[in-house]
UniProtKB/TrEMBL annotation:
It comes from Pararhodobacter aggregans. This is Propionyl-CoA synthetase. GO terms for molecular function: propionate-CoA ligase activity. Its EC number is 6.2.1.17. Coiled coil: none annotated.
Length: 630
C-alpha cells in the first residue's frame, strides 16, 4: 500500500483503520470499538479495553522468546561506561521495583513523580509505574526546585522517585537538595521518596521519608501487570504554556500503545530486534515516546545516552554510539547537529566510524534549517527526515513514513500528515486557506489515538488553549502552510512559547519570575534568533521609580533569579534595562515587533503603536547586547 492509500483510509475509515492497528497490541480485554465520541469535542480511543503498558513493552517480548535480547543499552561518555540490560533482566527489575512501590501503598491511579537523569533506572521507574497502573510524571533534571514544586502541587504524587545526582559535563547536578527544596516549597507532601544512589554522589536520606532504591526492594514480592482501562492515563507530562503554570498533558494508555507501535514500523522502519536511538532526555516527550515506550513496545533495543553531542568528549560521540551499538534509525534535535557541524564542519569525525547499519536520521523538536539538513545528508549519506510533533500529540503529526514508502524529501518541510491527522491551515476567522498560504495550523477533530484527551485537572484550560479558537479543530499553536502536494511547512509559533535548543519554554513564565524582582516594575521576554540554539530568551526590564542602582547589578540578579526559579535549561542570560516598553494604545506589549528589530528583520510600524519613538530606544538597547544589526 502507498502512503496515500494508508492516509486516505485513516481519514475515511478511522474506525476500521485504528481497529486494525490495535491488533498488534496484547489486550487483556480487546476494545469493542476504536473511537468514543460521546463527549465530543473531547474524544477517547479504545476506552472499553483492558490492557497494561508494561506487559506490552516488556513481558510479552520475554514470553515471545526475546528474553536474552538487549532491551536497553546505557552509554555514558560522561562516566565512561556502557552496559546492557536484556528484556528478561528488565522484566525482573521492573517487577521488583513495582512490588516495592506496591508494598509501600502505590496503587492504580496514584501519581508518582520521577526526577532522574539519563540512566536505565529512569526507564525502570516509568515501567514500574505502568506495571501498577500508577500515573508517572517525569520532570526534566534541568528544571529548578520551584518548577518541581509546581508539578508536585499539581500532580499530588504519592511517591517521588529520584536519583542522587545528574552529571552534566564538568558539573554534578545535586538532585537531592533540589528535591528536598521542592518538597519543602510544595503544599502537597509525598508519602515517601525513593532515591537511587549513584556512585558519583551518595545523598543524605531523610529518615521516615526517603528510602533507598535497593534496600526498599529487599524481600518484596515482585508485582504482576495490573490491567487498566483504555482511557486510563499512562502518564502526565508537563509542558510550557503561555503562563508560569505548566500544562499537564495526559497520555491515554491504549491509544499510546497503538499509535507508538504504528510509528515504529511505519515511520521509523524499526522491527523487533533492531536498535533505535533517540538522543533526547526522558524528561521530554521524545524521551517518553522514543527512548522508553516506542522502541520497547516494538521489541527493539533502545539506547539511553548520557552525554552531549559535543564535548563528551568530542563531536564524534554520536557516530561512535551509532557504530558501536549498530543503530538503525537515529533521532535527534537539529540544534544537536548544528553543535556538531560547528565543531566539525567537514564531517571528519563521521568518516572515522562505520555507519553501515544506519538507515535514516530523524529530526524534530524545532524547525530544521535547510543548511543543517543538507550538511547531514551530504556527510551521512542517508535520508534526513524532519518530522513535526508536540508534547500534546506524543507522536508525529507530519513526517516521512519510510516504513511505508520514502517520499521525496523537500528540505524545510517535515513532509506530510500522518494517519489520522487532518491537518489544515486556517485564517483568523477559522476558514481553510488555499495551498501555499500562511495561516494557523489546526487539526480537524478528532485527533488520532495516543494524543491528549484533555489536561490534568484542567479541562477548561484544555478547551480554552486548544479547542475554542477554531470550533471543530485542535489549535496547534504553530503557523505555516501546506503546498500543492500536501507537504506541511512549520514556520513559527502563534503564542509566547519559544524553542531553545529543542526545549519548549514559556516567555510568560520567565516574565513572571522577572516581575517578582523587587526593583522590576514591568518586563517583557522575547525569543531572539540564535545560530546554535534556534532561539534564546532575552529580557527587557523597566525598573521601579527611584531605583538608582547600577543596571548591571539588577540584570545579574534577574539572570540568577530565572536560573534559580526555572532552571539552567531556560538558558536565560541576556537582559537589559529600558525606560519603557513599546505598546499598543490598548496597552499590549509589541513583542513580535521587538523580535523583528532584534533579528534585524524588516517590520511594518504597527498601526496601533502608542509611541513609535520607543522602538528606537529598544533598538539601541538591543545593539548594546550585540543584536538589532540589519
Ligand atoms: N540537568 C541539569 N542541567 C541541565 C540538564 C539536565 N538534564 N540539561 C541541560 N542542563 C543545563 C546545562 O548544563 C546548561 O547549564 P549552564 O548554563 O550551566 O551551562 C543549561 O542547562 C543549558 O543547557 P543546554 O541547552 O544543553 O545547552 P548547552 O550549551 O549545554 O549545550 C547543545 C548546547 C546544543 C549541545 C545542547 O543544547 C543539546 O544537546 N541540545 C539538544 C537538545 C535535545 O536533544 N532536545 C530534545 C528535544 S527533542
Ligand atoms: P514540544 O512539545 O516540546 O515537543 O514542542 C513542540 C513544538 O516544537 C511544536 O509546536 C513546534 O513549535 C516545535 N517543533 C517540533 N518539531 C518541529 C519541526 N519538525 N519543525 C518545526 N517546529 C517543530
Amino acid at each position: 500500500m502507498s502512503y496515500a492509500d494508508v492516509y486516505r483510509r485513516s481519514i475515511t475509515d478511522p474506525e476500521g483503520f485504528w481497529m486494525e492497528q490495535a491488533q498488534a497490541i496484547d489486550w487483556v480485554s480487546a476494545p469493542s470499538r476504536a473511537l468514543f465520541a460521546e463527549n465530543a469535542p473531547l474524544y477517547e480511543w479504545y476506552k472499553d479495553a483492558q490492557v497494561n503498558t508494561c506487559w506490552n513493552a516488556v513481558d510479552r517480548h520475554v514470553e515471545a522468546g526475546r528474553g536474552e535480547q538487549l532491551a536497553i543499552i546505557h552509554d555514558s561518555p560522561i562516566t565512561h561506561s556502557t552496559k546492557g540490560i536484556t528484556y528478561r533482566e528488565l522484566r525482573d527489575r521492573v517487577a521488583s521495583l513495582a512490588g516495592a512501590l506496591r508494598a509501600k501503598g502505590v496503587e492504580k491511579g496514584d501519581r508518582v513523580i520521577i526526577y532522574m537523569p539519563m540512566i536505565p533506572e529512569a526507564l525502570e521507574a516509568m515501567l514500574a509505574c505502568a506495571r501498577l497502573g500508577a500515573i508517572h510524571s517525569v520532570v526534566f533534571g534541568g528544571f529548578a526546585a520551584h518548577e518541581l514544586a509546581v508539578r508536585i502541587d499539581d500532580a499530588k504524587p504519592k511517591a517521588i522517585i529520584a536519583a542522587s545526582c545528574g552529571l552534566e559535563p564538568g558539573r554534578v547536578v545535586h538532585y537531592k537538595p533540589l528535591l528536598d527544596a521542592a518538597i519543602d516549597g510544595a503544599k502537597h507532601k509525598p508519602a515517601f521518596t525513593v532515591i537511587f544512589q549513584r556512585e558519583q554522589e551518595v545523598a543524605k536520606l531523610i529518615e521516615g521519608r526517603d528510602v533507598a532504591w535497593h534496600t526498599f526492594q529487599y524481600g518484596v514480592e515482585p508485582a504482576e501487570c495490573v490491567p487498566v482501562s483504555g482511557d486510563h492515563p499512562a502518564y502526565v507530562l508537563y509542558t510550557s504554556g503561555t503562563t508560569g503554570q505548566p500544562k499537564g498533558v495526559i497520555r491515554p494508555t491504549a491509544g499510546h500503545l497503538v499509535a507508538l507501535n504504528w510509528t515504529m514500523t511505519n515511520l521509523y522502519k524499526i522491527e523487533a530486534g533492531d536498535v533505535f536511538w533517540a538522543a533526547s532526555d526522558v524528561g521530554w516527550v521524545v524521551g517518553h515516546s522514543y527512548i522508553c515506550y516506542g522502541p520497547l513496545i516494538a521489541g527493539a533495543t533502545t539506547i539511553v545516552f548520557e552525554g552531549k553531542p559535543v564535548g563528551t568528549p568530542d563531536a564524534g560521540t554520536f557516530w561512535r554510539v551509532i557504530q558501536n551499538h549498530k543503530v538503525k534509525s537515529f533521532f535527534t534535535a537539529p540544534t544537536a547537529l548544528r553543535a556538531i557541524k560547528r565543531e566539525d564542519p567537514s564531517g571528519s569525525f563521521i568518516k572515522e566510524y562505520n555507519l553501515k547499519n544506519l538507515q535514516a536520521l530523524f529530526l524534530a523538536g524545532e524547525r530544521a534549517d535547510p543548511a543543517t539538513i543538507e550538511w547531514a545528508q551530504q556527510h551521512l549519506g542517508v535520508p534526513v527526515i524532519d518530522h513535526w510533533w508536540q508534547t500534546e500529540t506524543g507522536w508525529a503529526i507530519a513526517g516521512n513514513p519510510m516504513g511505508i514508502e520514502l517520499l521525496p524529501v523537500k528540505v524545510g518541510s517535515p513532509t506530510v500528515a500522518m494517519p489520522g491527522y487532518d491537518v489544515q491551515v486556517l485564517d483568523e476567522g477559522g476558514h481553510p486557506l488555499p495551498a501555499g498560504q500562511l495561516g494557523a495550523i489546526a487539526i480537524k477533530l478528532p485527533l488520532p489515538p495516543g494524543t491528549l484527551p484533555t489536561l490534568w485537572n484542567a479541562e477548561e484550560r484544555f478547551r480554552k488553549s486548544y479547542l475554542n479558537t477554531f470550533p471543530g479543530y485542535y489549535e496547534t499553536g504553530d503557523a505555516g502552510y501546506i503546498d500543492d502536494n500536501g507537504y506541511v511547512y512549520i514556520m513559527a509559533r502563534t503564542d509566547d512559547v519559544i524553542n531553545v535548543a529543542g526545549h519548549r519554554l514559556s516567555t510568560g513564565a520567565m516574565e513572571e519570575v522577572l516581575a517578582s524582582h523587587p526593583d522590576v516594575g514591568e518586563c517583557a521576554v522575547i525569543g531572539v534568533a540564535d545560530e546554535l540554539k534556534g532561539q534564546l530568551p532575552m529580557g527587557f526590564l523597566c525598573l521601579n521609580k527611584g531605583i538608582n542602582r547600577p543596571h548591571a547589578e539588577v540584570v545579574k540578579e534577574c539572570v540568577g533569579l530565572v536560573r534559580d526559579q526555572i532552571g539552567p535549561v531556560a538558558a536565560f542570560k541576556l537582559a537589559c534595562v529600558v525606560d519603557r516598553l513599546p505598546k499598543t494604545r490598548s496597552g499590549k506589549i509589541l513583542r513580535a515587533t521587538m523580535v523583528k528589530i532584534a533579528d534585524g528583520e524588516a517590520f511594518k510600524m504597527p498601526a496601533t503603536i502608542d509611541d513609535p519613538a520607543i522602538l528606537e530606544e529598544i533598538r539601541t538597547a538591543l545593539q548594546t547586547l550585540g543584536y538589532a544589526r540589519s
